[in-house]
């Protein structure tokens, strides 16, 4: 039982098959144990079996890797559809922005007081900010402007930004792998992607809780159809209420959000920016624990 731990659901299955004589076949999710530190997905079959003192035949196939690869493919398909939706939406947003900015400039010239002109300056400034965001969303999907960067320096920068604008009781814990090498990244794109994820984690906590940020290197890791010798994994975990189950299959689509004040653009934009580095964002969520995993290849190459 050290392999599966103290799992009540599995014990119930064994008792039911022993009592009824019916066969059982299903996929089970086993939590971490001392033997296996990560959650596993197992294809389990239990049948009545009579031989010596045995009463049951239990067959288990670990399908964790296959399940994760299937989920990655679904995320990549979702990202492709989301990218098209974002670009269409960005086009629709960009068209009226020029008119809004022009109207604000004309109004500014007609206003007699500096105090009133401050309002038009805000309109112009926010219009320019939205135009820059739209340009980013519409930007070419070509290679980012990569340079050697320390991912921990980027994470500390993001934490400082969050801390400067946050008056809540949110604690940030760091669990960094000091041996992680420098990465070839577009610093600005990476800051924006990680900032979106950390902001989401903070918003989920509703002003009180803990965000844990971890880094590590993983070897022989498959992203989509490509197996990489080494990748960097960045985990952003919060102990909030979790992502609603009915949204978990669609959170990387634009405009999908569980928050009344959310835009539903943060996660799709983050996924797009990470994909430009050959990476992927995955997640798991349940009440009390939501973890987003940012996967970025270190080797900048691939082997099948």
Task: Report on this structure.
The structure is a single chain. The chain is of the alpha+beta class. It is elongated, with a radius of gyration of 24 Å. 42% of the residues lie in helices and 28% in strands. Helix 2 (64-110) packs antiparallel against helix 3, helix 2 (64-110) packs across helix 6 (266-275) and helix 4 crosses helix 5. Strands 5-7-8-10-9 form a five-stranded mixed beta sheet. It has helices at residues 8-20, 64-110, 114-138, 151-164, 187-205, 266-275; strands spanning 24-30, 40-51, 54-62, 147-149, 169-175, 183-185, 208-223, 226-238, 280-286, 289-297. The mean pLDDT is 79. The chain is built from six helices and ten strands. It folds into three domains: 8-62, no CATH class; 66-138; 147-297, Histidine kinase-like ATPase, C-terminal domain (Heat Shock Protein 90, 2-Layer Sandwich), CATH 3.30.565.10.
Descriptive labels:
304 residues, Heat Shock Protein 90, elongated, 10 strands, three-stranded antiparallel beta sheet, alpha+beta
Q: Mean pLDDT, as a whole number?
A: 79
Structural class: alpha+beta
Helical segment tally?
6
User: What is the level 1 CATH name of the largest domain?
Assistant: Alpha Beta
The share of residues in extended strands comes to 25-35%
What is the strand tally? 10
Order of helices and strands: HEEEHHEHEEHEEHEE
Strand order of the largest sheet: 5-7-8-10-9
Distance between the termini: 36 Å
Largest sheet: 5 strands, mixed
Low-confidence stretches: none
Share of residues in helices: 40-55%
